């Protein structure tokens, strides 16, 4: 799938609490932690001149007490010179991320519990993985709860404990993978791959044919895992923000 096709699907799969539009620019606002749901996605031409649109985006986030952030995607950003416009205003790029795609194929796993909603054990591991940032964990749990149906949540249980988890959102023939986590006590045992395989098998039964996921360029272990599973980089995106002022 091209960025023009896949980016709107990815936006819908990880929904912000508050959403707005400026023509082809999508405004997402939540609590400020998960970058994708706290950024403007300029996926088409705005409904006004670009400089006026940037002004409107800045006003939107300022009114909510959130930092102004743009998510610029290779092959799906309009206008084409938006990065240059932002740079002139003092914005800088950061958080380069790969969007990887792969075939939907996997296998059921007797130790992976699948459900249509995140259960308390799923939530507990996600909260623990936030390393004490309760607000970040709450934002992500609420975003997971907003994933449109059909969604699936997977927990791999070993020795009576939730050792790894993940989630997926199916939209037609596309399925997005989100929330992959492994308990530190169970790492380096191939559990993330087992969760991924179980999610992909379930997504296949729901009609999905192409899987996608986002992974930061700096996360070499995750990239290696997904590459070994047959995923490859389809395109990249970067965030643009202004440095905080003292």
From TrEMBL:
**Where in the numbering of this chain does the N-acetyltransferase domain appear?**
108-245
- Assigned keywords, A-Z: Transferase
| Protein origin, superkingdom | Bacteria
Q: Which SUPFAM superfamilies match?
A: Acyl-CoA N-acyltransferases (Nat)
* Pfam families tied to this protein: Rv0428c_C
Q: Which InterPro entries match?
A: Acyl_CoA_acyltransferase, GNAT_dom, Rv0428c-like_C
State one molecular function term (GO). Answer: acyltransferase activity, transferring groups other than amino-acyl groups
Q: What is this protein called?
A: GNAT family N-acetyltransferase
């Amino acid at each position: 799938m091209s960025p023009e096709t896949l980016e709107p699907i990815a936006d819908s799969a990880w929904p912000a609490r508050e959403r707005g539009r400026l023509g082809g620019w999508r405004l997402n606002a939540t609590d400020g932690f998960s970058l994708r749901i706290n950024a403007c996605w300029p996926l088409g031409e705005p409904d006004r001149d670009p400089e006026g649109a940037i002004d409107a985006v800045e006003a939107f986030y300022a009114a909510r007490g959130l930092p102004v952030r743009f998510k610029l995607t290779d092959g799906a950003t309009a206008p084409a010179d938006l990065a240059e416009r932002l740079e002139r205003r003092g914005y800088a790029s950061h958080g380069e991320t790969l969007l990887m795609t792969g075939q939907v194929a996997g296998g059921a796993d007797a130790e992976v519990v699948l459900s249509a909603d995140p259960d308390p054990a799923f939530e507990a591991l996600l909260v623990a993985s936030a390393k004490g940032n309760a607000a970040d964990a709450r934002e992500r749990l609420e975003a997971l709860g907003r994933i449109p149906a059909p969604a699936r949540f997977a927990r791999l249980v070993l020795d009576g404990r939730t050792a790894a988890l993940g989630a997926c959102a199916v939209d037609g023939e596309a399925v997005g993978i989100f929330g992959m986590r492994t308990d530190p006590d169970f790492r380096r045992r191939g559990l993330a791959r087992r969760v991924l395989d179980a999610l992909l098998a379930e997504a296949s039964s729901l009609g999905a044919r192409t899987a996608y996921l986002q992974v930061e360029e700096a996360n070499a272990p995750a990239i290696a895992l997904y590459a070994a599973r047959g995923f490859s980089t389809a395109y990249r995106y970067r965030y643009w923000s202004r440095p905080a002022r003292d």
